[in-house]
Design brief:
This protein has about 280 residues and is mostly beta strands. It has a domain at about 130-275. Helices cover about 0% and strands about 50% of the residues. The chain is built from no helices and 24 strands. It has strands at about 1-5, 5-10, 20-25, 25, 40-45, 45, 55-60, 65, 80-85, 95-105, 115-125, 135-145, 155-160, 165, 175-180, 180-185, 195-200, 200-205, 210-220, 230-235, 240-245, 250-255, 255-260, 270-275. The protein has an eight-stranded parallel β-barrel with strand order 12-13-15-17-19-18-16-14. Strands 21-23 form a two-stranded parallel sheet. The termini are far apart.
């Protein structure tokens, strides 16, 4: 069934719809217009009210817009593809799986992608706090984020060719790999396990601390101080490091370290090997 240039209003306007293609239409006031719907394709549609796509399955959105009041828009969904779309509303995607995002802008990404799994994204821009908390099986390429506390508790995450300005990102995470990217933010990666950074440029106050199995390959640390506290680390740094504080164990290789602080009453200095090229 095809629908073109329609205006929908009222609660559950298209409740439990099946096998529809909707073009150039507007969902005005009224909660949950497409709740429990399945096999829905949306092209150039506008959503202006809350909870538009709860408990849905096999949804495609192309060139759509979710305005600010379309908050908590896609929860408990299975199989959602979103392309060339602007999502202005916060708290989108919650407890959903099978999410594909291409050329999507999240202008208010607060509490977005919480407790979601099986996420693939490319050319994504997001601004907002607590992005992707407890997300699982995430692959992002060309991802730009401005917002603190991202990926708290996330597992099995792979991020490439990206830029993140994010204080406290990757806290309590497990099995995260970031490559060919830039990260700026205080307290990067605390309490993480198996955090791998490859060919990244990083700026961080007290970054990469309290980490179990931190691996860094061909990274640069700029304006990074008091790094690696109580972390087990295998770090190959292709720059200098401003300061290092009390690493627990492993090997750190750098051009130089301006200040190395190892307090024998807190860590065993013999467990960490420090190599400076000059």
């Amino acid at each position: 069934m095809e629908v073109k240039q329609k205006h929908f209003s009222g609660e559950r306007a298209l409740f439990m719809s099946r096998d529809m293609k909707i073009y150039d239409s507007v969902f005005f006031d009224g909660e949950s217009p497409l709740k429990e719907s399945k096999n829905i394709e949306l092209y150039d549609c506008l959503f202006r009210w809350k909870y538009p796509l709860w408990y849905t399955e096999n949804i495609t959105m192309d060139r759509c817009t979710l305005f600010d009041m379309a908050r908590a828009g896609i929860w408990y969904a299975n199989g959602v593809t979103v392309k060339d779309t602007v999502i202005e509303a916060p708290k989108n995607f919650r407890r959903s799986r099978g999410i594909t995002l291409e050329r999507v802008t999240f202008s208010n990404a607060q509490e977005t992608l919480w407790n979601c799994c099986d996420i693939k994204g490319k050319d994504i821009t997001a601004k907002g706090e607590y992005f992707a908390m407890n997300a699982r099986n995430v692959q992002l390429d060309n991802f730009t984020l401005v917002g603190n506390y991202a990926f708290d508790g996330a597992t099995d995450v792979n991020i490439t060719n990206s830029r993140m300005i994010s204080k406290d990102s990757f806290w309590n995470s497990k099995n995260v790999t970031v490559s060919d990217s830039f990260i700026s933010g205080e307290y990067l990666g605390w309490n993480a396990e198996n955090l791998t950074l490859v060919n990244c440029t990083i700026e961080s106050l007290q970054g990469m601390c309290y980490i179990k199995n931190l691996t860094m390959k061909h990274c640069k640390l700029i304006n990074t101080t008091l790094a690696f506290e109580y972390s087990t680390v295998d770090a190959q740094i292709d720059s200098g490091i401003d300061s290092v504080l009390n690493p627990s164990a492993g090997t750190i290789t750098a051009e130089y370290i301006d200040e190395l602080i190892v307090e024998s009453d807190k860590v065993d200095p013999s467990k960490t090997r420090i190599i400076c090229k000059r």
